[in-house]
Protein: Nuclease SbcCD subunit D
Organism: Saccharopolyspora erythraea
Amino acid sequence: MRVLHTSDWHVGRTFHGRDLLRDQEAVLGGLADLVSDERVDVVVVSGDLYDRAVPSGEAVETCVRVLSRLRAAGAEIVVTPGNHDSAARVGAFADFASAGGLHLRTRISRLHEPVLIDDEHGPVAFYGIPYLEPDPARHALEASADVAGAAARVEARTHAAVLTEAMNRIRADISPRGEQVRSVVLAHAFVTGGDSSDSERSIAVGGVEDVPGSVFGGVDYVALGHLHGPQRLDEHLRYSGSPLAYSFSEAAHRKSVWLLELDAGGLSGVERRELPVPRRLATVRGTLEDLLTAAEHTEHEDCYLSATLTDEVRPLEPMRRLQERFPHAVHLEWQPEGGRATAPLRYSEAVRGRDDQTIAKGFVADCRGSDPTESERLLLQEALRAVDIAEVRR
């Protein structure tokens, strides 16, 4: 059996205000070609199908088209929700969808019930562990403690505790099935040793969010979701990462999916398949004039751009001017060079012994790096005079 491991689609996400639905559909829809070319039997999505618990209508339509293309290419699909998803919404009509080859594993109480898909060697059991928020998950697990091998109570309120209990239930289900049944677990979690980026929402509870990889022992492969960089923690324990970059911290990522093969004895191999990049990310630094004129930046003109301006004085309308050359500039910071004092100043120290006009002029100079012009000083005087008049009339 050939299985394609992907996760963290985040359909409906924007990138610094830019709509990504078209890019997402192009990349994710292209997985159907990979399914066809590589003779993939099953596609697994390990959480964060959507970017929001209540996705827009356009995001849902995009996701439906992508899933339909994957199914039409010949793959069964197994999905479990992540921390961005609403498990109830993702799992709506799950029993009906499974008849069409879309298996939505969203209920904590049923995480020990696998999707069984056969190949020439027998069944492969796919278990979906939805994202487990520790406290609600603990109650859900306790409420369903009548399953074979389940503990009566989950004492600790941590990610590690609820995931340990989830895996105990899965192993209890695998054991009586015999060695001929191979197993794949989908899980959405932060496993110790994984490298994070700026685009993942923290799942820390009580200051602890990671779980040891040893929790996931006893299965043939664990398809992890949550971290957006593709990475291998062990031969059978991997993150596929997100299919697109969702922060500039991911600029160096090689976005990809894992293609794994299961033979009669279990996991026989895992290969990487890189995904296309709809638009590259780039970061640049320099004065505004340098960024607008230097030939070395020509290669960045079609990239999503993050610029750090080093001008001693904050330029006027810098983003508008940048976008004349870099139409996809989306992020801007000003970090002036030249040793300007940046030490924090307490409010009482900043205003002591100064009149309102001096304080206002100092604020402009501190924010921009230069004193107000004559016309700006007149505007400040007029504004302060209007405030004084309003306070007298009050």
Q: What stands out?
A: The CA atoms of residues 14 and 20 lie 6 Å apart. The radius of gyration is 27 Å.
